[in-house]
Design brief:
- The complex is a heterodimer.
- The longest helix of chain A is centred in the first third of the chain and has 38 residues.
- By secondary structure, chain A is mainly alpha-helical.
- Chain A is built from eight helices and no strands.
- By secondary structure, chain B is α/β, with parallel strands linked by helices.
- Chain B is built from nine helices and ten strands.
- In chain B, a hairpin with a 2-residue loop joins strand 1 and strand 2.
- The radius of gyration of chain B is 18 Å and the shape is globular.
- The chains are: A mainly alpha, B alpha/beta.
- The interface between A and B is medium-sized, with 21 and 25 residues.
């Protein structure tokens, strides 16, 4: 019979780690998406020459490995004397990282709305803002959703890297248990299953929305 | 009244409109014919301010369209336009497509906007499609919906930009019938079209566009029966 030293309190310890993972992910995806929408709208409306500094910064956040960003960011906030907790630092870096990807998703979604459709809306007397709110946003949402779900799931898994700042999230919690109990395969399986349980509802929700929208087309 | 005076418009080095003048009085139907790239469609998009102009004036009921202080969003309520590509809003039902502008632009309450929308959609023969999404409609039905959508704003003028060009041949008739009906009701219309039969039967005047200018304008009997300009004759002998 299968035997393990994993106790109920160990499982609770893992669950706590999962909560931290969930919190870091939720904050970063929310803030990152908000910034992404803002930057994405700017990107599709303002000339790239004007936005050059922003575009460059976002490119940096997209191309430098997240682990390096976290460590450099943490060092920078310490040098600057901001006194951020590792949790705050992690959320800030992950949010910017998320926003860099979200910006491209939003820009792509806005650009995917045909110019002719927007012209038709404007020719009815809709203002730029009304066109954005009633036509571009709902139409773009359908384009953006699959990529956004992918980004969210990616950020959830990438958030494991914040363990390097000393945060005990799901992966770090399982590492601690592995060190103590010496049952790496079993404990990592449990951790993996928890990651799956966190991701699955988001993926399903996305699939459901897509299906519902497709019925109308 | 729409007054177009000596309008010029270039896209980069290409001058599309080379001094176009045209006055359309209320209740008049003017058809604009001519070869592709002759500037017909550009003229329409200039009339409702979707495109800027380089020189000249366009006045709608005395208001200069391209003047600095002109509120284009307000002006566009008076001027409906329907494009070659019908441009349905795919995420909205037929009814919502038509009520959107009256509600957002005119601030109409939902019930009132729906009443108008149902009336206009019935008018174009789509009363049974209110709750359907545009993706389920045929091209002709979508184009008629686009017409109802423009009419719901109770415009004084309607501009039609080759509204049947993207349709399957068997769907052209239903859209042209809708245009004819509007013309008979006294709507002021400028129709850019390749449908010569329609231009002959419905319009009061026909303008032949050639290389960015109106080469000839007159009643359909003149343009189709006894064209004055050799360019008109050449064009008409090619399309027939």
């Amino acid at each position: 019979m299968f035997d393990t030293a994993l106790t109920l309190s160990d499982l609770l310890f893992l669950a706590q780690g999962a909560l931290v993972t969930l919190a870091v992910t939720a904050v970063s995806v929310l803030a990152g998406t908000f910034l992404g929408v803002l930057f994405g709208v700017l990107r599709s409306n303002v000339s790239a020459w004007v936005l050059f500094p922003l575009i460059f910064l976002l490119d940096v956040f997209r191309s430098v490995p997240l682990l390096i960003q976290l460590i450099l960011g943490n060092a920078f906030q310490a040098i600057a004397g901001w006194g951020w907790t590792p949790f705050v630092t992690s959320c800030v870096i992950l949010s910017l990282y998320t926003s860099a990807y979200a910006t491209e998703i939003v820009r792509g979604a806005i650009d995917a709305v045909p110019q002719t459709t927007r012209r038709a809306a404007r020719s009815l007397g809709l203002t730029w803002r009304q066109d954005m709110a009633s036509i571009v946003f709902p139409m773009g949402l359908r384009v953006a959703l699959p990529s956004w779900i992918g980004l969210t799931l990616g950020v959830m898994k990438d958030s494991a890297l914040v363990l390097w700042l000393g945060i005990i999230e799901l992966l770090r919690a399982s590492q601690i248990l592995v060190t103590r109990l010496q049952e790496p395969l079993f404990i990592l399986s449990v951790a993996g299953a928890i990651y799956f349980l966190l991701s699955f509802p988001i993926a399903r929700l996305g699939g459901r929305l897509e299906r519902r929208w497709r019925e109308n087309d | 009244m729409i007054e177009i005076e000596n309008v010029r418009k270039s896209f980069g080095a290409l001058e599309v409109l080379k001094g176009v003048s045209l006055t359309v009085s209320n209740g008049e139907v003017v058809s604009v014919i001519g070869g592709s790239g002759s500037g017909k469609s550009t003229l329409l998009t200039c009339i409702n301010g979707l495109e800027s102009i380089d020189a000249g004036h366009i006045l709608i009921d005395g208001t200069e369209v391209h003047a600095r202080g002109t509120d284009l969003n307000k002006l566009r309520r008076k001027v409906g336009i329907v494009f070659q590509q019908w441009n349905a809003f795919p995420h909205l039902t037929v009814l919502e497509n038509v009520t959107l502008a009256p509600r957002k632009v005119l601030g109409m309450p939902k019930e009132q906007a729906e009443e108008i929308a149902v009336r206009q959609l019935t008018h174009v023969g789509l009363a049974d499609k209110l709750k359907v999404y545009p993706g389920r409609l045929s091209g002709g039905q979508q184009q008629r919906m686009a017409i109802a959508r423009a009419l719901a704003m109770s415009p004084s003028y309607m501009l039609f930009d080759e509204v049947t060009s993207a349709l399957d041949p068997q769907l052209v008739g239903e859209v042209l019938d809708t245009l004819k009906m509007l013309a008979e009701e006294g709507m002021t219309m400028i129709c850019v079209t390749h449908e010569m039969g329609f231009a002959r039967d419905v319009s009061k005047r026909v303008a032949f566009f050639h290389q960015g200018v109106i080469a000839e304008i007159g009643p359909p009997e003149q343009i189709f029966g006894a064209p004055q300009s050799s360019e008109t004759r050449k064009f008409l002998s090619n399309v027939r």
